[in-house]
Amino acid sequence: MRHKLLFLVSVTFILLSAFSTKVQASHMAGAEITYEWISGSTYKIIYRLYRDCSGIAEPTSVSCCYYATCGGPAYTVTLNKAPGLNGQEVTTGCPGYNSTCSSPAGPNPGYREWRYENTVTLPTQCNYWKFFVSINARNPAITNLNNPGGNNLYVETTFDNQAAQGNSSPYFTVKPINFMCVNSNYTYNNGAVDPNGDSLSYELVMPLGGQPSCSPGAAGTAMSFSSPNFNLTNNPISTNNTYTLSAATGSMNFTPDQTQTGVIALLVREWRNGVQIGSIMRDMQYVVMNCSSVPPNLATDSTSLTGVQLINGQVQGCANQPFNFCFDISSTFTNAVLVASSNNGTIAPGSTITYTGQTTDSVEGCFSWIPSSADTGLRVLSITVKDSTCNPPGIILSQTFTIPLYVWGPTVGGPDTSICSIDSIELWAKGGLTYQWSVLPGGSPISSLSCTNCTNPMASPSVTTHYVVTSTSGNNICDKYIDTVTVNVLPAPNFDLGPDVTTCVGDSMQLNINLIPDAGMTYSVNWFPSTFLNNDAIPNPIVKPLHDTTYIVTVVPNGIGQCGGRDTIFVNALQGFTIYNHDTAICDGQVVQIQGLGETEYTYTWFPALGVSDPTIINPLITPDTSQQFTITASYPGCTDSSQTIYIDVQPVPTVFVGADQILCLGDTVHIQTQITPSSYPFYTYNWSPGGGLNSAT
Question: Among candidates 119, 135, 252, which has minimal Cα distance to 192?
Answer without folding.
Answer: 252
